[in-house]
Specification:
The protein is mostly helical. The protein has eight helices and no strands. It has one domain (27-244). Bound molecules: zinc ion. Zinc ion is lined by residues 99, 102, 110, 113, 144, 148.
Length: 245
């Protein structure tokens, strides 16, 4: 689960309380993982299906390659996410432990260090000292983690959840071209998979761009362009190494 969702309730209360601009940063984590996963699923599976279809006319071979691509891709996404979130969490845990020991061994030094950070952010020297003192009395490790290291102590990484999330979004993306290939066999298959996948990608890019407050047209064009490139290349490779020729 992307880390920045942890503070969502807190941000919501703040927004309700004081002003009206809509911050989108808290959506980025979820969105980015979902778009990346689904985008990978569509592009890699559609390209695989088109490549195999360009080389072989057997519907069974094409669907088999599509299903194998879906499973392999979902597993590799899950493995990659699990490893990256776990190692990120290991690094953060080690950093926190280092900080905890340093606070235990040299509290006064750590307090001065924190005050310097607040002074650097624009607070007066005297006020910085007071803020550092009170925040350290309240939660010394939390204050240093947040303001010195830049991590949230209670936002624990969930590698398994992140892995499942990535595998699920990949699978949803990959299932789209696979369903089209299953529903439209024969000579219509390649144009149908290519066209529908480009539409899915454009939609995905548009949704991601609009949720992130960016240009929908550019967002849609970006993912469609790379998707088209990938499908064209694999079709070329499939034609070149065609099994039946
Ligand atoms: Zn420190």
């Amino acid at each position: 689960m992307p880390r920045d969702c942890i503070g969502e309730k807190y941000r919501y209360d703040l927004l309700q309380m004081s002003h009206h601009e809509i911050h989108r940063a808290h959506r980025i984590g979820w969105l980015r993982a979902a778009v990346l996963g689904a985008n990978d699923g569509i592009v890699s599976t559609a390209s695989l299906i088109i490549g195999v279809a360009a080389a072989s006319t057997s519907q069974a071979n094409i669907l088999l390659a599509g299903v194998a691509g879906l499973v392999a891709g979902a597993m590799s996404m899950a493995a990659g996410e699990y490893v990256s979130v776990s190692s990120q969490s290991d690094i953060e845990k080690a950093d926190l432990e280092l900080e905890r020991i340093s606070i235990e061994n040299d509290y006064e030094f750590e307090k001065e260090e924190l005050a310097k950070i607040y002074e650097g952010r624009g607070l007066e020297a005297e006020l910085s000292k007071q803020v550092a003192e009170q925040l350290m009395e309240h939660d010394a490790l939390g204050a240093h983690a947040r303001d010195e290291i830049g991590i949230l102590v209670n936002a624990s990484a969930r590698p398994v959840q992140a892995a499942l999330y990535s595998a699920a979004t990949f699978t949803i993306g990959a299932a789209l071209p696979l369903l089209v290939a299953w529903a439209i066999p024969g000579i219509q298959l390649i144009p149908a998979v290519a066209a529908s996948s480009l539409v899915f990608l454009a939609l995905l890019g548009a949704i991601a761009a609009s949720a992130g407050g960016a240009s929908i047209r550019i967002g849609a064009f970006r993912v469609t362009f790379w998707g088209a490139m990938a499908m064209a290349l694999t079709a070329g490779v499939g034609r070149l190494f065609g099994l039946d020729s």
